[in-house]
Amino acid sequence: MTKWIDVCATSDIDAEDVMRFDHGGQTFAIYHSPDGKFYATDGLCTHEKVHLADGLVMDNIIECPKHNGRFDYRDGSAKGAPVCVNLKTYPVKVEAGKIMMEIGK
Amino acid sequence: MVIVGGGKAGARAIVGLRGYGWEGSITLINAENLMPYDRPPLSKAAITDEAEPLPTSLLDLDMMTSLNVNHMRHTSAIDINRGSQTITLSNGSKVLYHRLLLATGAAPRKIPLEGGERALTLRDFADARKIRHAFATGKSVAIIGGGFIGLELAASATKYGCKVTVIESQPRILMRGVPDEIAGHVAARHASAGVTILTEVSVVQINPRSVVLTDDREIDAEILIAGIGAAPRTALAQKAGLAIDNGIACDTKMQTSDPFIWAAGDCCSFPHPIFDNMRMRLESWRNASDQAVTAVENMMGASRDFTAVPWFWSDQYDLSLQIAGVPGLGLSTVRRNLRDGAFIVCHMDADGRLVGASGIGRGNTIARDIRLLELLIGKKARPSAVQLSDANFQLKGLIKTDIAA
Ligand SMILES: Cc1cc2nc3c(=O)[nH]c(=O)nc-3n(C[C@H](O)[C@H](O)[C@H](O)COP(=O)(O)OP(=O)(O)OC[C@H]3O[C@@H](n4cnc5c(N)ncnc54)[C@H](O)[C@@H]3O)c2cc1C
Ligand code: FES
Questions:
Q1: Are B29 and B78 in contact (CB under 8 A)?
Q2: Of B90 and A103, the one with more pLDDT
Q3: Could you tell me which CATH number the domain at A3-103 has?
Q4: Can you tell me the distance from the alpha carbon of A17 to that of A9, in angstroms, rounded to the nearest whole number?
Q5: Using CA atoms, how far apart are residues B342 and B391, in angstroms rounded to an integer?
Q6: ipTM score assigned to the predicted complex
Q7: Do B286 and A67 touch (CB under 8 A)?
Q8: pLDDT for B316-350, tens place per residue?
Q9: Boundaries of domain holding B295
Q10: Which of B100, B146, B179, B300 is the most exposed place for a label (fewest CB within 10 A)?
Q11: Distance CA B336, CA B156 (A)
C-alpha cells in the first residue's frame, strides 16, 4: 500500500536548493531543481552519514557538505570518490502547491 | 605505472588511473602493513569512539583486486635510479617504472630536547591506538603545539577526563591557520571543556612526568604529545637528485624536475596559478586527493594545471572549522554571521579580491557558504563587503553571473 506524506509547500524551497525533512525517525532531503521539479532522497550522505541538506545544490547535483561527495539527486547516483554508494530516492508529487513524497513500507 | 606511498594521494591515484582508462599494470609500494586508510579520523573518532577503532579503509582488498593493483605492503622504496627507471625496495628487489608518482606524505616533527623521545606523535594508525590507550588511563596530558592536530587531540583527551594543557609558543593558537576571531572562538570552547591553553611559552626541560616551561612553571605531563607540525618526506626524492623546495618541487602539472616522475599530497610543493604562482605546500586531505587526480591525468599524457582552491577542515568537540583559499594573503576581512553563532571571515587582498575564507560553527552550518566562497576564490572574484556581510545575500548568484577579474 502506498501512502503519500505531506512534506511542505512548493514555495518553501527555493529553486536549485534543498531542504531537510524528518519523518517517522527517518531523515530525507527534498530538492527543487532549476527546471522547477521536485525530488526526494535519503537525507544522509552514504559516505559518513552527514546531512545533505547542509550541502550545495548546483544544477542537478547535491554536494555533500563534509567531503564534497556528489550525487545526482534525480536518480541518487554517486558521482565518484569519496562517495561510491548511491543514494536512495523516493517518489515525489506536487498537488495544489504541496509537495508530497512516498516513503514506502 | 608505479606509486610510492599508500596514503590518501596514493589511493586516489589508483582509482584515478583506472578511471581514466589505464589498463596497464599498477604497482603500489606502501611502507605500511595495512591497506590504504584515511588519516583525519585518527585524531578524532579513532580516539573518542567507544569501540576499539579500525582503520577507515580507502581501498580494501576487494577493491585492490578488482582494480588489479600489485600492492607491495610493508615495503619501502629506498632508492630511485632515474637513468634506468628502477626503484630499489627495502627487501632488496627492484621495480621498473614507466611513470612514477611520489606520494610519500609528511612525518611529524620531533621535540629536539633531551627526553623528547617520550613525546608521542600522530601520523599513523598505530600512533592513534597508542595515544588512545594512553588517554584511556585518564592521566595528565601536555600537548606541545596549538595547531590543528594538537587541538583535536586536546578535545579528544577531554572525553577521557584527562587534565589537558596545550603549550603554544606563539601569542595565540592556530597562528598560521586562522584569523584572531576564529582562534578566539576555538580557544573559548577549549577553555569551557577544561583545557588549559598556555601561549608565548615553550618547553625547556622534559621530566618523566612533567615538563618545565620558559617561565619556570612545571606542568603535569604524564602523557606528552608533540603536535609541532610535520615535515615533508623528501629523503627518497632528494637522494635521487630531484629538486626540493619545502617538499618535492613540482610545476603546475605536479611534475617533478624529472619528466617521468610526478608528486602529489603532503610531500610536495607547487606554484599555484590562482595565487600568482606562489609556491605552497599543503597538508590537507582534499588537496592530496585532487593533486593525485591531476598527476595521474598528466602521467597518462594530459597537460593539465593543478588549480584547485586549497580547502581544509578540522573538527573539535561539536565545532567544525573550514578554511578555503589562502587567508594569509588577505589584508582586510569581512565577517559574515550565520545562524546559531556560526560565522565566516572573508579575506580580501589589496585589490579587493577574495583570497580566503575561514569559518567556524556547529555541525555543518558553515559548509555551504564556505563552498560558495571557495568557488568565488577560484574565479578571482571581487564580491563587495556589503554582499559578503549580509547572510541573506545569495552568494550563488555571484557564481552564475561571472564576475571574474
Ligand atoms: C591525525 C591527522 C588528522 C588529520 N585531519 C585532517 C582534517 O581534519 N582535515 C584535512 O583536510 N586534513 C587532515 N589531515 C591531513 C591529511 O590526512 C593529509 O593531508 C593526507 O593524509 C595526505 O595524504 P598523502 O597521501 O599525501 O600522505 P600520507 O597520508 O601521509 O601517506 C603517505 C604514505 O606513504 C608511505 N611512505 C612514505 N615514504 C615511503 C617510501 N619510501 N616507500 C613506501 N611508502 C612510503 C607512508 O608510510 C604513508 O603511508 C590529517 C592528518 C593527520 C595525520
Ligand atoms: S560524508 Fe559525504 S562525502 Fe563524506
A1: no
A2: B90
A3: 2.102.10.10
A4: 14
A5: 11
A6: 0.85
A7: yes
A8: 999 999 999 999 999 999 999 999 999 999 999 99
A9: 2-107+230-299
A10: B300
A11: 29
